[in-house]
Design brief:
Structural class: alpha+beta
Distance between the termini: 35 Å
Shape: globular
Largest sheet: 5 strands, antiparallel
Order of helices and strands: HHEEHHHHHHEHHEHEEEEHHEHEEHE
CATH architecture of the largest domain: Orthogonal Bundle
Low-confidence stretches: 2-40, 59-63
Strand content: 15-25%
Oligomer: single chain
């Protein structure tokens, strides 16, 4: 079940980001602006006194729900149930010392979600029950459950199906609102697309990274607290928490909608602070909190590749898996001679045609799988199979409890160049501009909202 929620945390409602540039356009523009202009105090226009005198009573540092957003109520139960999604996604409880900080972030997210739903209704955008039902069915199917079973599971773990449906409604509303209010007004010129393609061709062979980001905004007054919150999130990630789930719930960047995925980027396409850290990272690593313009970021490197260069790990394989199982209670000493014989037979398997013969000799079974990407296999198997030829079998792998198996390569289609098309680049540039305007639109909704905390 936790695995299903991790999969859905990358946003079942939205397609993944395009295969190039990620959030590069906005980041490069920001970096250039930072290099060309001296730092500006963002509060200068407010003309604030140096030593302000305070009036009235102090607002508590921790605001408890409920909140009333333009008349719509967010209860403590709403916050608690949404917080439980993280426990479900991670397969473990949230540490007690982190619950309060994360609850405040969830409350902020719920306020944004409420504003988005309200704005969609104001534009006469209707989210039908059937639209939400279809997504709930996909979430349930991913966990091999019916919607009714999923509802019971959520209820048993401190959340609810209504909380999930509310989140889905918010996602659909925001996507359709962007389509209605923003996308129609965005344009990308041919010269801009050509410039990106030229830069990519010039960078051919250089390293690029598949990057995820969790961004927490901060002001000079909240920077210390934001760093502490980021450190707590990092601790959870190091303990196995889902990066995509945390990005979706707590990141304040537009990429939160896709689990923080920036897509494929080169270091120089990111702000200097992120670029310097990224160059030191390898696949599967997560950075410490990084102070950036406007807040703090945590980045994760999912994979690496070379620009416009075919990656052998993108080869598409046709495989046969031969597996043998051992009776419960079989000792390692008893199994080792059988595994040794199985390994020797696999060396001389004689191609995929010999898989059934070996399976018969060892009372095993054969499973055929086509269209398997080499990069989707575990890292150890990737390294083993990179130099292998069609007809060869891997060394045996597995365990006595789950069975010992070998993979036989029946077919191999090598990867082609990953050069993006004109349409790929156009779509990415368009998406970046839509995201930028969407951030400004949400900021306007926040500024105009009437929010009461109780």
């Amino acid at each position: 079940m936790a695995r299903a929620f991790r999969l859905n945390s990358t946003r079942a409602l939205l397609a993944g980001s395009a295969v190039l540039l990620g959030a590069a356009t906005a980041a490069m523009a920001q970096q250039a602006a930072d290099q060309q202009s001296p730092p500006v105090n963002s509060s200068q226009s407010l003309n604030l006194p140096e030593n302000p005198q305070l009036f009235g009573t102090t607002m508590p540092s921790v605001i408890k729900a409920t909140a009333i957003v333009n008349g719509d109520v967010i209860t403590q139960t709403d916050v608690d149930q949404r917080l439980q999604f993280l426990s479900i996604a991670n397969g473990q409880p949230i540490p007690a010392e982190q619950v309060e900080a994360l609850r405040q972030q969830v409350l902020r997210n719920l306020i944004d979600e409420t504003l988005q739903i309200q704005a969609a209704k104001a534009e006469k955008i209707e989210i039908k029950k059937s639209d939400i039902d279809r997504t709930v069915e996909r979430v349930a199917a991913d966990s091999k459950q019916t919607p009714q079973q999923l509802a019971a599971y959520l209820d048993a773990h401190g959340s609810s199906i209504s909380s999930l449906r509310r989140q889905i409604e918010g996602e659909i509303a925001w996507r359709r609102l962007q389509q209605a209010k923003i996308e129609a007004g965005v344009s990308v010129g041919d010269d801009e697309v050509k410039a990106v393609l030229d830069r990519l061709n010039a960078a051919k062979g250089t390293e690029e990274y598949r990057v995820g980001e969790i961004f927490l905004s901060a002001t000079p007054y909240t920077e210390e607290q934001t760093l502490q919150n980021a450190q707590k999130i990092l601790e959870q990630l190091k303990n196995g928490a889902s990066f995509a789930a945390y990005a979706r719930q707590y990141s304040e960047a537009s990429t939160a909608a896709v689990g923080g995925d920036l897509g494929w980027v080169r270091p120089e396409q990111l702000p200097t602070a992120l670029s310097a850290v990224l160059k030191q990272m390898g696949p599967g690593t997560i950075s410490k909190p990084i102070e950036v313009n406007g807040g703090v970021s945590i980045i994760a490197v999912q994979d690496t590749r070379k620009v416009l260069t075919p990656d052998p790990r993108d080869a598409i394989l046709s495989l046969k898996q031969v597996s043998i199982n051992f009776p419960k209670g079989t000792s390692r000493q008893q199994a080792e001679p059988i595994v040794a014989s199985f390994a020797e037979a696999a060396k001389n398997i004689g191609g995929c045609g010999g898989a059934e013969k070996i399976a018969g000799e060892f009372h095993g079974e054969v499973v055929t799988s086509d269209q398997i990407k080499l990069r989707d296999l575990p890292a150890t198997l990737q390294q083993m199979m990179l130099p292998m030829q069609v007809g060869q079998a891997t060394q045996p792998f597995g365990s006595l409890d789950e069975g010992v198996r070998v993979l036989v390569i029946c077919g191999r289609d090598e990867a082609q160049s990953n050069a993006p098309t004109y349409d790929d680049v156009y779509s990415q540039l368009n998406e970046e501009r839509v995201n930028s305007r969407a951030r400004r639109y949400l900021a306007d909704l926040r500024r105009d909202a009437i929010i009461e905390f109780r």
